[in-house]
Amino acid sequence: MSTPPFSTKSSPLSPAGTDIFWKAPMTPEARTIWYKILVGKVPLRHFLRQIGRSTSSLCHLCTTSFKDTLHFQVGCPTKNDVWTSVLGYFFPHLHFSIDCLYTIMTTLTWPSTIWNPSHLLVVIGTTLRCIWIGHWQSSIHNIPFQRQHLVKRAIRETLHILTPLPLDD
Ligand SMILES: [Zn+2]
Asked: Is position 167 within any domain?
């Protein structure tokens, strides 16, 4: 069975969203991780099994059985806590449901109430990267997935990108 080089996902990417995605000032690492999601190349548990790091198809954070990328990216309650905290910080007047967030991440379309989509994409890309790092550190190296630490890190790194002021610490 051969794998096509590009995604065969049914949801098409928004051309306008794609343009903003490539221009948004997120870090190259964040964009690369997000790009893997857009083209359907996220390694799940089967990848860990292949490399001998796992024998389970259960989420190691919440022990739910899952096969989909929705749980991996946003649906896992542990990760959803991080998303809710970071998005709540930057968009206190908006509520992003799991489905809404997943749609944004996989189709690059967002609610019309978002007046600065580039800003939104930086927040999501940076948070995604922090969650990704936390996921693999806990999954492969058994380092605890520390929600509050990841929330603070995602907020700090996003502010660093979005504000011209230097941050001390
Ligand atoms: Zn989970």
From this structure: no
